[in-house]
Amino acid sequence: MGVILRAYRIKKHFYSGDRTTVIKACDEVNISIPEASIVGLVGESGCGKTTLARILLRLLEPDSGIIWFRDTNITSLAEKQLRPIRKYFQMIYQDSRSAFHPRMRVFDALKEPLRLYTDLHGRDLRDKIESLLEMVNLNKGLLFHFIGNLSGGEIKRLDIARALSINPEIIVADEPLSILDISIQSRIINLLLDAREKNGASILFISHDLGIVKMLSQKIYIMYGGRIVEIINKMKASFRPMHPYTMFLWEPRNGEFSVGFPPGGCVYKNNCLLYRDRGFPLLCAEVQPRLKKVSDGHWVACHFVKP
Amino acid sequence: MANLAELKGLKVYFYDQRDKRFIRAVEDMEFEVEEGSIMGLVGESGCGKTITARSLMGLIDSYPGLIGGKFYFRPRPEDTLELVRNIRRGVSREKTHSRDVQYGSGSQKKPYKKDGMFDLFYGIEEFVTFKKKPFTIIKDTEKWLRRMDRIMENIRGKNISIVFQNPGLSLNPYIPVGLQFEKTLRRFNPGLKREEIRSRMLELFNSVKLYPGQKIIGMYPPSLSVGMAQRVVIAIAISSSPKLLIADEPTTGLDTSNRIRIIDLLLSLVNEKALTMIFISHNIGLVGSVADSITVMYAGYAVERGSNSVVIMSKKGPNHPYTEALLEVMPEESEIMAGRRLKVIEGNVPGNKIEIKGCPFMPRCRYARGKLAKLCENEKPELYEVEPEHFIRCFLFRE
Amino acid sequence: MKRYFFEEPLVRPRLDEQFHVPIYRRASIRDVISIGFGLFVVSYLLTFFTISVTNLFIRDPMQVDMQNIFRPPSFEYIFGTDYLGRDIFSRIVKGTEAFFLPGLLSISVSTSMGLLFGIIAGFYPRSFGRIIFYILNIIDSVPRIIFIFIIIVIFKPSLYLIMTFVGVTSIPKVTSYIKSKVETLKRQRYIEACRGLGLSRAAIIFKHIVWLSCKSVLLIQATLGMGEAILIETSLSYLGIGVQEPTPSWGNMVAMGKDFFFQGKFWLSTIPAVVIMVTIMGLYLLSDGLNSVYNEKVSR
């Protein structure tokens, strides 16, 4: 099975105005997404996963690192060369409302990608757009409404329809289920599963809900503070969370929890129970743990997890 | 325990001036809340749950607004007198003489009291009614809304508080948190000194586990994280020690950890401060894990209500077809792994501008077949008591 | 809903945030009247210009008719005749020729260059933007009337040249509007989404930025520019520097007619003056109405 998208040592740092604080949104991140599979990326909001998603699609430039789409190195491609390839990777945005011009109409928004990449016209185009609306369960009467007037759930579905309309090979879905009702979530999940099965697309499913991600993905990345802290490949290893953060996500308990990018040492130490129970060992405070292979298909970045 | 609030027959309509049509926001909503319990209100977005919540606080301000219902509520003892005075005011006395038997003469007025609770919507029939022809309102509702305002002044914030979904929208981003809080505190506790207000604020921040309280007072809402902002909103809501707290989708859109903490916070408030809560959400699983009693809403109707154990927990027990479908679409891993697709609820929620004949759920109901279909299409079911304290609006359960 | 005059209704209607209603639904009565009147002015301008250019006059505006001098307005001569017996109405119609094309020239110059510079300055605020604004500041500080006279003295009094100059002096305003719009827009997420879709840069600029967002600014500036052009042209012609006799221009008709005003033959100068006023007012009202309709954030 080939790898459709691979990112190697992606680094992206944001600096505050006076250069005193650094936010390491992405710090030595490696990701590889196989063909026709669903890969999950889990983390709290603010951990850098959206930044990573934008970097992968080259909507944002990384400070360093390489990205491969199939065999092509797309990191250094100029915009002009990149443009024709863009039809193979599409994104579903976390804040769908900001991804559309509010004065545009629904019809025009869906027409844009279709006109770019297919040669559907007139009646065929109209039929295709209507079928797209049906696919995401949007009322056909909304066809000529302004996007600015739609509700959040409707816009999210429109975003999904737009991304799926040109059958891309990889779909980066940033919180696709977040504001949807439960009754529609199952429909969208089915859509994504269909895209994978019928069109062979891969999906990078970004979410803060480990439960859903675990159900859908073949491979799961857990991200915190800009670093990947655990990788579980469900095809090869059984799902047994080992990193303290993953364990917290899987079985959340109450207690103090802060989301942030602490300088120096392990990113998770401020919330890590292990850190606390073992009396704040210097190792965690100073040394950033690297991803170590615990078993085939299972990698954990923690000083206290031994293979 | 006695009921804290009872809602019966809530009807909220809006009038679209441009299209000259009525929009049915809520058609027939009812529930009962026991004192000290949590009632879960479940429904898709657009089914009218937020409108219901707002009408309980008299916040409906679009024309024509509230046009029917009885909302019995037990206020704090110290507010009872004021409330009764406001209720009785404004219901005209002259009309009672020329009225028909409904009102009769002065001493035989319709009751506004029931089991120690007071009807906050008392007198609504007098102000706003439909003619025989559907969708025609006789009187304009502004006088009614003005009266409602008077009644609700005492209730809003003091006896009933509400927490909305997005804390970013509830807090003014240009005013520091402390100042906004102070406004509310001063309104309900006039004559407090500065230090007292400050200490009360810190006390409330403590009870919602917001640290460090001192710093938060000076911060502006945009600098707060979503979880913290939501806590501030909750703190402001409980600052007047209300009897009822309405939480409208308080955790939708929050991360897992924030969600857990907000829910824990709400649950602890219910336990420690003897608060009663109405928890509104579209996530039936979430509601099922926190609520004692459940009301399910669809297209402006209350379609099922009962205690949590009979509505959600019992898999074999009777349920409204909509509730059943909601419970089924929760994803199960085994299904996905086996390559099967998740179940969906076919169809769409009916638009609220058209008139619905018959049962609103009929087009999507899997049981509406054959002879039953004819019935469901033409007649509207009532809430039938299927078991003691378990009501379902479906012809399947009509004896 | 009833409106209260001086007291606030107890129940305050909630302002819906940014409800994007299509234009025709958003306008208040005042706007409808403004825009309606403005469109009426535009339509008669267009009609007159077309008639004038195609020479479809009912009565020749240049035809001297000494038998019929100083006829007051009547059914036969709608606006009367002037001191040479020429039909004033036809002359008014022909007078539009004086400013129409030059006016269009002026607004084309200001909008196209303003758009171009605005986009460049918006996308490169630190490099090209600085240079552009330096130059534009210089242009802005030029006293227009004086330079117009200087141009007339140095070059021939060609109206086209003058209008080009007027257009150039209007560039700074348009540029700054466009630049600020571009600066806000380029940060918007949907522009990034368009890049993600694979739209070319040109498509993004023209479709999303210009057409969807800047259209209103340009239209309003164009309308205002036309009004300004008419004002300048008529003023110059009144002073005798613009269009010369016997070619009619509203300005020089007023000038010629003023000598006869106190003889009781008021229509020679009053009518063109009223037409000037109505036209310019119409254009300004149009731009005002458009402004209020496009930039209104609050709707019912």
TrEMBL record, chain C:
Q: Which GO terms describe its cellular component?
A: plasma membrane
Task: Assign the protein's first listed, main location to one coarse class.
Answer: membrane
The residue ranges crossing the membrane are 32-58, 99-124, 131-154, 160-178, 266-286
Q: Which UniProt keywords apply?
A: Cell membrane, Membrane, Transmembrane, Transmembrane helix, Transport
Q: Name one GO biological process term.
A: transmembrane transport
Tell me the ranges covered by the ABC transmembrane type-1 domain, including all copies.
100-287
Q: What is this protein called?
A: ABC transmembrane type-1 domain-containing protein
Which organism's genome codes for this protein? Aerophobetes bacterium
